[in-house]
Amino acid sequence: MTIHYLVDVSWMLHRGYFSCSKIWDEFPELHFLTKKIESWLARKDAILHLCLDGSNTKGKRLLGEQYKAGRHQQDHYNVYTGLTTFINLLNNDRIKVYFGNDYESDEIIFTLSRILEGRKRIISGDKDLLQALKPDVIIESAKGLITTDETYKYEYADKFFGVAPEKLPVFRAIAGDTSDNLKSPVARFPRKLAAKIVNDIEYNGSCPTIAQLNTLKGFDNYSDSESKWIDKLIECYDSFSINFNIMKLNVITENISNKYHSTDVEFSDFLKNKILKLNIL
Asked: First and final CA of the chain: distance in angstroms?
C-alpha cells in the first residue's frame, strides 16, 4: 500500500533558518532536505508531497492579524526563494511540490490528508495539523532541522490532548495558545474546563453556537463557578468565533497543484550533484 509523506517544508524552513543560517554560507535547509528526501525515497512505496506556503494568503490567516505575528521577516523569504527553486528542479515522479496556490502549507497538508488514498505520514511540528489525525494518518513531529521519535496516532490522541483531534480547534479557540500568539477570548480561562466543554459539546465541524454553550450550564456536572466561566465565554463569543476560524483547517476545493516558476538561483556543485542523485532514485 502506498504511503504518502506530507512534508511541511515551510515549517522546517522557518525553524531551521533562524537557528542555523549563520553557520553555513549556503542554505542549510537544502543540505538537510536532500538527506531527508533520500531517506524517504528509500521506501519504494513512498510518494513525497513537499508543501510550502503560498506567496499570498487568502486562507485562514486573513482572519487574525496577531496570529503568528513576526513570522515573515525578509531574511526568511531570501532563503525561501532558493528553497522553492531547488525543489522545483526535482523531476522525480515520486516527488510532488505544492506552492504558489495562495494557501499555507498546513492547509495544503490537511487537504491532502483528506483526499489521498493510502496511508499518510505528516512531517511537521505545527500544532495546527494535530487536528488532521485519523486512523490512516500519523504525525511525525519535526523540531527545527530534525525529525524526532515523537509520533502521534489517532487511537492515542485523547491521552495527549484531552480531547479528540477533530475538536482541537474548539479547545484552542477557548484556551488560546501562547506558542502561536493566540489569545484566549477570556483571560485565564481554565484549560481543564475548556477540555470539559469541548468533550461535552456536540461538534459538527462548525463553531459551537451560543445556544450550545448555554445548554451546558443546565448539565448536572457543571458547578455555578463553571457556569459563570461559560457566561464570560458567551460574552466574548465574537472573539471565540474568530479564534475557531483561525484554528480550523478546511479542505481546499481549488486546484492546489504547483504554479511556481523557477527563478535564477546559483547552487554549488555539491547541491547540483545531490539534485542529480535524487532525480534517479
From this structure: 19
The answer to whether the beta carbons of residues 163 and 198 sit under 8 Å apart is: yes
pLDDT in tens, 23-80: 334 555 566 677 788 888 889 999 999 888 775 554 444 444 444 545 444 444 445 5
* Beta bridge partners of residue 96, listed in sequence order: 49
CA dist 78 and 58 (Å) reads: 22
pLDDT digits (tens, 9 = 90+) for 222-254: 999 999 999 999 999 999 999 999 999 999 998
Q: Count Cβ atoms within 10 A of the Cβ of residue 108 and give its class: 0-12 exposed, 13-18 middle, 19 or more buried.
A: buried
- The C-alpha cell at 7 is 512534508
- Residue pair 23/206 in contact (Cβ under 8 Å)? The answer is no
d(CA 248, CA 226): 25
Pairwise CA distance, residues 227 & 218, whole Å: 9
DSSP β-ladder status, 3-8 and 119-123: parallel
- Dist. CA 2–CA 281, nearest whole Å: 17
The helix (run of H) or strand (run of E) holding residue 274 is helix 269-280
Pairing type for strands 3-8 and 46-51 reads parallel
Please say whether the beta carbons of 254 and 96 come within 8 A: no
Domains of the chain: 3-159+250-275 (3.40.50.1010), 163-247 (1.10.150)
The three-point CA angle 114-119-122 to 5° equals 70
The region that residue 197 occupies, defined by phi over 0 for left and psi between -120 and 50 for alpha, beta otherwise, is alpha
For 207: left if phi > 0, alpha if psi spans -120 to 50, otherwise beta; the answer is beta
**Of residues 100, 129, 92, the one with CA closest to residue 113:** 129
Per residue in 96-122, pLDDT (tens digit) is: 888 766 788 899 999 999 999 999 999
